[in-house]
Amino acid sequence: MRVLRLRLQNFRGVADREVTPAPTGVTVLAGDNEVGKTSLVEALDMLLDEYDDARKKAVRRTQPVGQDVPTVVEAEVQAGAHRFTYRKQWHRQPSTRLVVHEPAPEQLAGREAHDWVLAVLGAEVDLPLWRALRLQQGVPLEQADLQARSSLAQALDATVAGTVGGEREETLVARAEEEFLRYWTPTGGRRTEARTLEADVAAASARVTALEAEVAGVERVVERLDRARADAADERAAGAQDAAAVRDAEERVADLHGVVRAVEVARGALAAADAAAATAERERAGRRALLARAEEAREAAAERDVAAATAAADLAAAEDHLRAVARELELARDAAAARREEREDALAAEQRHAEVVEVTRLRAVLADAVAAQRRVAAAEEAVAAAPVDDAALALVEDAARALAVAAARAGAATPVVVLEGAGRTLLTSDGERVLDEGPEEVRLVGGTWFEAGGVRVSARPSADQERAEADARRAEDALAGLCARLGVDDAAAAATAARARREATAELERARDAARRAASGEDLDAARRRVARADDLEGSPDAAAGADDAAADAGAATGEHLRRRREEADGALGAADLAVVRAGVRLEAAREAVDGAAARSADRTAAATAADARERVVLDELAGARAALPDDRAAEDAEDALRRRGEAAASLAVAEAAVAVAGVADAQAELDLRRARLLDGQKRLRAHEDEVGALTAVLEAQGGLGLAEQLGQARAEEERARRALVAWDRRATAARTLHEALQAARASAHAAYVEPLRAQLHRLAVPVFGPDVQVEVGPDLRVVSRTLGGVTVPFEQLSAGAREQLALLGRLACAVLVSGGAGVPVVVDDALGWSDPRRLDGMARALSVAGASCQVLVLTCVPDRYRLVTGARTERLHA
Amino acid sequence: MRFLHTADWQLGMTRHYLSPAAQARSTEARFEAVRRLGAVAAEHGCAFVVVAGDVFETNRVGRDVVARACEAMAEVPVPVLLLPGNHDPLDAGSVMTSALFRRLAPPHVTVLDGTPVEVAGVQVLSAPWRSKRPVEDLAARACEGLAAEPGVRRVLVAHGTVLEFGSSSPDPALVDLAALERLLEAGALDAVCLGDRHSTTEVGRTGRVWYAGAPEPTDHDELDPGNVLVVDLGDEDLLLPGPGGRPAPEVTRVPVGRWRFHRERRELSTDEDVDELERLLAGLPDKSRTALKLAVVGTLSLAQKARVDALLEHSADLLGALQVWERRSDLVVRPDADDLDALALTGFAREAAEALAARAEAPAVADLVAGGTGGERGRVPVTPDAVAAQDALSLLHRLAAAG
């Protein structure tokens, strides 16, 4: 396909533009940014792809903003032998017009025109390749996806003998793979379905085998049953023969009947003789026994009589003994009564004596108590006679001390005069006075005076002195008053009186203690009452007192004596009681002895009576027997019978000897043998019949199961399962075979057609990278690596510039290869932004080379980049 | 005096190539055949029915088969005499002596155990099989010491292969036809009713010895199955004493079978051949009761093979049974240029198709190289790889045809 002319009207920002690219070679469409270069490519796409009435957003957006004007795209295109002008108008009065110029002029409109163009392009142009070969702004580093391009394949196919498929072929590969994966895992393993089918076959086979075994088992049972039936039939036939043989033998035995009969008769006679001899012998023995029994009975009767007499004597002795023992018991009882009385007396005496002793003691106690009471009363009187107790004494002593103090104070307050004048007389208030040789001190108490030489010296006391003297007088009065009240003369007397009271009080305490001791532990009232009772009993108290005294004298000695006497009486009583008990026991024993003896005596008497009776019976019997058959006749009969028996035995021996001579035994033995054989045969027959019964039961049980049909169905099932597995295998094998064949062919085709592309790419790369450049192209037709100066670098690791350059070169190489009828323009939209000036020059040369055989449209805002492209047509685009 | 002669009912028979549903139809058809022959007996005024052996497929049939057999026989309006054959011998496991059968069998059914049976003025002699391996000619044993008696008409019912006149066999159990014919000619016997052969067949030269054949066919190799015989011994009053004085009985075959067993061999090499096959398959009547065994040979293109496959698949759905006789089906798929062009493949896909075609044809080519015919007559040695390649091509054809 070649675009010969393209016109846009009202396409986005482009009001009206027409470009006319060179049919072959490079056309550079240069313009500033936003002048609408990319719109040219888009417009061409829209013209080819969209209906004039398309309402898609992408289509609607091509209308210039704010202008209600139609968008028009018109192109003149060469596609194979066809050249046509194709025009579409959108948005307003949509329309499609087609003017075909070659090969035959024609005009179409609307959908018809659209379809016509698509059909022509579909037949002539590889439209996917047209899109793949664009190097668009924004995605400059992508390599073109060339793998599925049929035109490229055909081009490569034309170049080499290899083959490359198109989209249809790739679809087929995908379907074949899908089919392959229905049966096989990606790694080539069979899918589970195969195992399931195999398991089905195995299960069906197992069922067939099992059923075959079962059927065979039944067949065996049938065979055994048939055999058992045949055996039973055989046995029945043999049994019939055996029965006939038995009958024959029986007849033979019957023929020998006469001889045998004689034996029978002899045997009968012998039996009769045997019986007679036995009877006679029994008779004789019976008589002997009867005689013996009569003797025996006689002896027994005598013996029993003796025993009865002995027992009667024993009874009498026992009764005597009983009476003696009874007497002993009575005596013992009397003795015990006497001992009991004695003991009662001793006990009473002992108790009386103890009473007397006690009453005596109580009298002493009571006397002590009275004496103590009297002493207490005396002591109480003494105490009452000494009124100064310790408290009163304390008061007196306090008053005496107060007096002394007051007197001392009064003395101290009294002035003292010293009188000197040895031998001189002096008158004084107390009378005359003659002075001693030495100075003499005199106290000047109030009223005191001296006169000497006519001079009277009187002492007038001072106030203090008067007060002190008054105090002293009061104290003196107080003491005196106190003493008077107590009835003593002075303080000393008071002290003496107090001491006397203390002593009287102590005596009172002691007397009371004595009284308490006298009454201690005794109920004095009870003692008095007991003593009074004793007095009442004994008569006058005096007498009693006398008796008591006597008793007291006898004292302990008498008490001891009475106790011993009583204890002795206890002992005697115990012994007497024991004697009674023992006599009682003996009496009981004697009674029992009498009872026993009486019973024995009765028994013996009865036994003796019975023995007498038996003796009488036996004697009667004997008498009867003798009357019937005298004793000597019985013995004779027995001897006769024995003789006759011997004769009969001899006759039998003779008869049996005759039978032996006649061969009767052989005939009988034959008969026995036949009979035994018949029985054996019947046993075997029963065994066979049992087996027939058992096997028949087994067969009946199996019969209705329909084993044969089940087996038939199982075989059918096995057949189906096997067919299913074979069919699966066959389909799986087919799928794998096809898959592998396609993959192999595809791989080898890819390998083959890589080479022309690589060669073309290399031709274009030399101007860019230099003569020693090598390019490796992979089976997907993409550049794998570039080798420069011996250094190989994978495509992905190349610089952005180099990648961009190789991406464009790849497209150019492809375009050159398919530049024939199905060729498409290469569109380069503002690429090579990464390339340095030197490489840009090289790319320009490569474009020149490519342009020699195909149409290349370069859209750029930097036209300088392509100045070195040989023969390029440059069109400047203006806003 | 007429009676109905039939044999080889083989009730309870299974066939491994029948689907479960077809098997059920086949089983049912055998019971239906019994009912129909009962109707035939009534229609032709038969006095009784003899079944000359193989009443049951085996002695090991299920309760249901016994029950349904008895039910079907109950609808036969005349006495039915059953002979145990090699399939159901009168051995210890005989189904006809089983408690179930004795309980269910209608009163007019008699099992022939070798004891002569008098029915409608005819003495029926029988030679039942008592085991699967008899060691003597059972028919001869049944007729031991037999001689013509005035006014006595005898029919022998036997089962097995006849030893034809003049031939010999080491098998002592074969029925000696010559001996029987002597008895027939002597007037000791009036007719011999045989079973075992499934095709209705007259044997010997007396016109009195017949195989009735199976009333429902059982396999593909039967020539004339599906019949019963109405045997007319003639009017008793017309009986003439002496040998050769009696006319041969009138034997009429009456079809009762519903199933058909076909065997077809087809050469398939052209579109016309495939058309022919299609017509054949479409023209089969009563398809659900038809068992077809098909042998196909020839060389087909991919497209033709795809058509054949589709045809057979469709027929398998319709027919009672369709067996493609594989052992003799040398159907070679040989993709021709048109096939490959029709696939419209380019590039490697076409190469792959061509490579597969080469593999598919390799045995044929080798055969040609070795001086053979290249399999044109359908006798190409087939290798697994060639089959795989053919199948792969068919698959490719299918995948490509999917668009």
TrEMBL record, chain A:
One of its GO terms (molecular function) is exonuclease activity. Residues 194-238, 465-514 form a coiled coil. The keyword Magnesium does not apply. Residues 542-557 have a biased composition (Low complexity). Gene3D superfamilies: P-loop containing nucleotide triphosphate hydrolases. Residues 533-568 are annotated as: Disordered. This is DNA repair exonuclease SbcCD ATPase subunit.
UniProtKB/TrEMBL annotation, chain B:
InterPro entries: Calcineurin-like_PHP, DNA_Repair-Maintenance_Comp, Metallo-depent_PP-like, Mre11_N, UCP033093_metalloPase. It comes from the Bacteria. Gene3D superfamilies: 3.60.21.10. It comes from Pseudokineococcus lusitanus. Belongs to the SbcD family. Keywords: Exonuclease, Hydrolase, Nuclease. This is Nuclease SbcCD subunit D. GO terms for molecular function: exonuclease activity. Residues 1-198 form the Calcineurin-like phosphoesterase domain. SUPFAM superfamilies: Metallo-dependent phosphatases.
